Amino acid sequence: MGTQTMTLAHMRAAGWPRWPGLFVLLACLGGLFTGCPAHAQELPRRAPDLDRLTQELFAEIQSDQVPYEDLYETLLQYYQTPVSLNAASREELRALLLLSETQITNLLKHREATGPLLSLYELQAVPGWDLRTIYRVLPFVTVQADDPNRARGPLWQRIKQEENNTLFVRYERVLQQRRGYAAADTFQGRPTQRYLGSPDKLLVRYRVSHAHDFSLGFAAEKDAGEAYAWQPRQGQYGPDFLSAHFFLQERGRLKALALGDYQLQFGQGLLLSSGLAVGKGAETITTLRRSSVGVRPYSALLENTFFRGAAATYQLAPRWEATVFVSRKRVDANLQQRTDSLAQYDEFGSSLQYTGFHRTAAELDDRHALQESVAGGNLGYLSRDGNLALGFTVVGTHYGTPLLRRAEPYNHFEFNGQNNLALGAHYSYVWRNLLLFGETGRTTGGGLGTVNGLLASLGPRLDAAVLLRHYDVDFHTLYGNALSENSRNINESGLYLGLKIRPVARWEVSAYFDQFWFPWLRYRVGAPSHGDDALLRLAFTPNKTSLLYAQYRVRLKPRDLSSSLGRPVPLPGQQLRHSLLVYYDTQPTTRLGLRTRLQASRLRDDDNLPWRGGYALSQDATVQVARRVQLAARYAVFDSDDYDTRQYLFEQDVLYAVSIPVLYGQGTRAYAIAQVTFNKHLTLWLRYADTRYRHQTTVGTGLEEIKGNARSEVKLQVRYKL
């Protein structure tokens, strides 16, 4: 492969003609004399290994708040509609999350100097594109130029003939009886607290799409415990969650048009980031900055990270684009009535609900209780050379019923009322080996928020990143998700420093240090506070199919300490957590893949309290039994002292599904997956998982409680390509 690639590069450098037919013929003839097969000009695209890629991007992130489903969804869409390396802009390449700014710049320079890439093998001739980078991006890119959409016939005909046309049906169930599904007469006069639906989880999803042309799809989902119901007045038409979208691109000056459900991503996500946002993780450089991908169709299953209505992007002039959007939907909220005649509002929402579950009578009372209307736009400028990007954003939000938070000290500066207006400006500038980026916004009430960063390539083997952020205590951005330690961009200042070193071939050292301050009180922190977060990772890639890394992370985070220390009330203190992760992924044969993962953590809440800890050890194996049959399995053991020392374990799952169980206590977890491809149209997945606990007579709490020491799950998925 390397010989042929150098042949391509040398031929171009020597001034060979760029006629594709002649060039491909000469490259193939060169392959005959160098021992490469003649058909090697076309590098086959393999399906992405999303589990391994997630390990590389996130690794040890002990949280259930990371939108992994959005990550999987985004990467799978890139696989189904790959990015054309010959036509992609700098922003589109950034959105892959896998390329450094220097690698992107070098590719654009190579493309400008030598013309379009004729083969993916040619990527080896691009400076800074090592084998690891190439193999990471291969599933998501192509060098084939898209045919003009007009030449493919009318839209209905293109949809009919599109190969990327797929229907998914999925079924899931926990096999043991859970307390929430017991008969109503067992709830001691409180039958409304039980689940109203069956324990089955069902999903139907369909999508047909073509890159830079169109996307059409729908999804219907019923979670376990939710009931089917036909109640148009309550906005339910059968399954609890319904979603649909229609999306067009590149229709002359109309760059994008979205109808139905969609997402928006502009600037650094300070005001609009309803799509994927990675943030801090094992990848310390490339995932730090956001990408202004604009309007995207929504096809995931998260029930609160999208807009519903219409959005359009129009090219005003060669360097200017404008996006306008409007959204109107009902969101989950807890509504309450005021009995005080002097109260400002007769009815108000005390909190927004984000779980997406509507299983009990109480959860159904909150379902779609609040009308939300959002409208706004973005005006963007891109310089001729693509190095300077500027944007201006406005977002207005109106709630049909006012929000009024509980009268707690930490809620003093929270958003209250019906209307919020947010204005912001963002920029991105590339100068040599530096990328400067940032965004600043102001919201109703005068609250300011700003995030500014620098990515620098200090040499072929050294990358660095710096990011400063500050969000006022009264900065209210309801669809923002810029980098922060809090779950929202409010009441925080911070400094992030990132580093990545490649001292020798196949070795990589990554590190970050993040210091943050909270000027006002927070939930479970009764005073202004501060904390630190640091990570160090050493990775070794012995070959293209193996990866070994060790990672250490330490976090010092504020938290109210228990009154068990002899204090009359909880007082703010510091929780110190140490985490260690060792991971090895190898493929000893073409049919066998092995993965070993060991992770452990220790923490304590105060110098006077004992350490608590937990660990998990897992072994995975994947076997290609036959050309159409693949099996995967895992066996894991875990031990943790309590819920605070719980362990999150990434697991393989059926396509499009995400599984990251939280494990605490003592026990074992095992699962097995069978994937059978019957023909080019039909594929089936079957997954069985089982968790066994020691020294326990029940599993779970509340309505999820199971009598016994085991929890077993079964999942069946069918994919049919039309």
UniProtKB/TrEMBL annotation:
InterPro entries: RuvA_2-like. It comes from the Bacteria. This is Helix-hairpin-helix domain-containing protein.
